Amino acid sequence: MATNVFIRYLNLRTLSLGLFYGVICALSYLLAYEMRFDFNVPPEHALDRVNTIWWVVALQLMLLAAAGQLDCVLSYFRLPDAMRLFGGLLTASFVLVAIWYLYDGRNVPPRAVILADFLLSFLLIAGFRIGMRVRSSRGLEDWLAGREEAENVLIAGAGEVGAALCAELMNKARLGMRPVAFLDDSPRKIGRYVHGLPVADAVDELDKVARRYAASKVVIAFPSASVKRIRTVAERAREAGLAADIVPALSDLVSGRAQMTQLRPVQLEDLLGRDPVDLNSGDIRAMIEGRRVLVTGAGGSIGRELVDQIAGYAPSRLLCLDQAEMAIFDLLQTELVARVKVPTETRVLDVANEPELRRCLEAFRPEVVFHAAAHKHVNLMESQPGEALRNNFLASRALARLASALGVERFVLISTDKAINPTSVMGASKRLAELAIQACQHLPGNRTKFMAVRFGNVLGSSGSVVPIFRRQIAAGGPLTVTDPEVTRFFMTVEEAVGLVLQSATQGEGGEIFVLDMGEPVKIVDVARQMITLSGLQEGEDIDIVFTGLRPGEKLYEEVQHLSESLHATSHPRVLRFVAESADPGRVDEAAAELGRLMEGGDPTAIKRGMQKYVAEYRPYLD
After folding, report:
1. Residue 43 pLDDT > 50, yes or no?
2. pTM of the predicted model as reported, rounded to 2 decimal places
3. Which residues are catalytic?
4. E-assigned strand segments in 455-590
């Protein structure tokens, strides 16, 4: 054991550092004697100093090595390193004091010398380590960077994250930001100092503090704060004429996916999103861990997030299907599949290709299926009702029946709030898909638990209003809104998928779950917020134009069918709809009749046929 420790330290770098520390310890020991005798050491003590210096320094080096100080990285020096350094030198001093009492002070340095030597050696070594830390964190470009060119920034939040951000910005001048003051809502912190900067006032006094310190930007440094609080700070920054940045999410900081200084502007997702979802991770893990999981539509916004979150619960294998070649390619290029650390397969496959789908599933034998593949764009599907039926209804029905035949444990259909009292082809086709999986629940010998989960618009997903507005702003406008009163429900993709997984754990078969989507948001308000976040002004820099509702669009989305009753579940943001079970015979009849109408290719006839089987559907007819 001792030999292994000796070999570990016996390398050139360790010996060099040990020699350097030995020189520091020897100098502090000599200086301690001088200080003890007022720089006039008596001859007898001068002789003791020479005779004892070698074994005293050797003792200190041994204990510093035991404390891990001879194989450390010099450029890293924080409180734990300082405590280990302190402990090693303090232990050496205790040993020397014990020897002094054991030998009654003969041939041992005086106690005052031991104390002075401990303090001097600690200060000298710690000072050296701090200097190396500063040198490492401030590279040559930082030392040469002109501080006068940096912009003054305020840091909203004087907690751990804010303090760490302040230290990073101070050490990295090349980032071009000079922290000048903190803002915090805690009265106990106001008036105090963090890293030499004052906690000037409460966050609500942002404009006053910005004028006092000539700040041009505020960095929001409380990543775990509520969305409402972040929205308030962003609005006050806008009113004060300040740019607003935000630190990465706390989960990204903890996991290492983001660094403290990777600031980004406040985005619409920060203002429209909601507080983090509290998931029952134990139930989700019990559903997924060790099982073979299939995700269809894996290259889309929802599918990709499903893959990411499911992989965190350690399935035995994961199969990702999508009909779009580029979607699968992009999924691979994002390093998502490489990062998940579970056996993952990807296939370019159209779920409407039933023979190939059957061969794929028979080979993979999935135990849990998340069916996210769908045509979702209302306007595109309005003129192609046959295509919407083929992909959203018939393919979902075929996949569900195949899942039942293969004995899949759970089948989760990703549905939409547009399936509620639909006015569009897309919504009606998704409602038919819900009826199809409910019908599969009652197939003879079925053991699969079928369920559907509805939710509203996902912020930033392809084809949604947010990326459309971003492109229109980049092009100089105008921003097109259908109606000043049109509203939609919004949620982030992370929240939506997390609640989908939570819903899946509660299903016993045949349920339709709906996610609590909060309050509806006016689309015109979304447009105005995006204009503001871009640093522009409505009417001066960019205009908003109202185009009128298009075929199939609603003024507002609804939350339930007239025939459904709403029930709570064990999770506050997941609700269960209970309605009469779908008649399998009726669904089979719909599939057959709508298939014949699709062959005819008459959009009006197809829509009327859909209305026959979805009575609440109100189609737009030319």
Report:
1. yes
2. 0.67
3. 418
4. 457-458, 479-481, 487-488, 490-491, 511-515, 521-522, 544-546, 565-568, 574-578
